[in-house]
Amino acid sequence: MPGTGDPLPVSVKDVKRVVEKRFEEYGTPRFLRSDNGGEFLARTLVVFLSARDTKPYFIKPGSPWQNGFIESFNSRLRAECLDVELFHNLADAGIKLAVYRRSYNEERPHSSIGYVAAATYGACCRNAGRATPSLHSGSEMSQPTADSS
Are strands 109-110 and 116-117 parallel, antiparallel or unpaired? Predict the structure, then answer.
C-alpha cells in the first residue's frame, strides 16, 4: 500500500491491460510465464489468455530460478537504479524509472543477445520474420570492428 513501504497493489485489470497491449505490440505467445501472484491466477486473466490460445505457465512456488530472465532484470534494476536513486515522490519515481527503462531497452548492451540493445535486437527479430533469430545470422547483428568505427 502507498506510504507503508509495500509495493503498490496490482490488480487483475492492470495485468490484463498490460498483457493485452504487449500482445498487440509483439504478437500472442503460446505460453505466458509468471509467478503465482493472485493477479496471474485470477479467473479473469486465465479466461482472457484462453480466448487468445495462450496457456498460463506458472513457476513453482519458491523457485525464482525457473524465471531467470526476470530475476536477472530485477537484480539489475535494483543495482543500477533503485539503490542509486533517491525518489522524492511517486511522480519523481515514475520519471526516473522511465529514464532507466528507456536506457535499459534502447541503449544498454545486453550480453544475452550479443551485446546489442534490446530495441535493436527486437527490430532485427521483426525484420527477420522470426521470433528468435540467430545472433550470428546476419550482418545487422554483427559487432562493429575497429575499421568500421
Answer: antiparallel
C-alpha Rg value of the chain to the nearest Å: 18
Residue with more model confidence, 126 or 76: 76
Which residues, 6+ apart, have CB-to-CB distance to 141 below 8 Å? 114, 116, 120, 121, 124, 133, 135
pTM, entire model: 0.55
- Measuring CA to CA, which residue among 97, 123, 137 is closest to residue 25? 123
| SS3 of residue 35 by DSSP | coil
Give the position of cell 575499421. 147
Nearest to 23 by CA among 11, 15, 35, 12: 15
32 - beta bridge partners? 56
